TrEMBL record:
Record-linked Pfam families: DpnII-MboI
Name of this protein: Uncharacterized protein
Domain of life: Bacteria
Gene3D superfamilies named in the record: 3.40.91.30
Length: 184
């Protein structure tokens, strides 16, 4: 069945993980996906977009005060997963999936093992840290691409990023990588 015609209950669609299967999968054909003709790859990419859109629209409503630590944002993302009825250890896990890359140990903030996706949260609250966050994201892409098919970066911005398009453009040109910015 072509990607664009798959439905949630179709026998050839990927297993239901509590996500709605998007009919936009045709946009992410095998040629644009690392992994070739694997039928689950477009599904994972579309689901990463669905989860990214969900986080982008809902995260800000959970944060009442200016966050002091990145962990505050991670906690809010986990609350969103719980509210979406994700099961820890099955649908997602937090700070697991440790691996080594070039002599350095990496631990993603969240993993979605069935989608081979990791989510990394960044808090940007100081202008002097903007370049450092971009460097961290680029280093994470290189390492996480070894273990995961899709990578979602959630950058919580407290007024540092003036041009979101410029901040995201080069990073999002990498296949399988999505970056969302949530403004405080």
């Amino acid at each position: 069945m072509p990607y664009g015609r798959a439905h949630k209950h179709a026998s050839s669609s990927p297993p239901n993980m509590g996500f709605l299967y998007s009919t936009n999968a045709h946009k992410y054909g095998a040629s644009s996906w690392r992994g070739g003709a694997d039928a689950t790859a477009p599904y994972a990419f579309v689901e990463m977009d669905n989860i990214g859109n969900f986080i982008k629209t809902k995260l800000r409503s959970l944060i009442t005060d200016v966050p002091l630590k990145e962990k505050d944002i991670q906690n809010a993302v986990e609350f969103l997963f719980i509210g979406r009825n994700f099961t820890k250890g099955i649908d997602y896990d937090r700070e697991s999936g440790k691996f080594n890359f070039s002599g350095r140990e990496y631990i993603p903030d969240f993993i979605l093992p069935k989608l081979r996706t990791c989510i990394e949260v960044k808090l940007l609250k100081e202008p002097s840290k903007r370049s450092k966050v971009i460097e961290e994201i680029n280093a994470d892409i290189t390492a996480y691409s070894k273990e995961y098919d899709t990578i979602l970066f959630v950058v919580y911005d407290v007024g540092i990023i003036r041009d979101e398009v410029e901040f995201c453009r080069d990073i999002e040109n990498i296949t399988g990588v999505r970056l969302i910015i949530v403004k405080h």
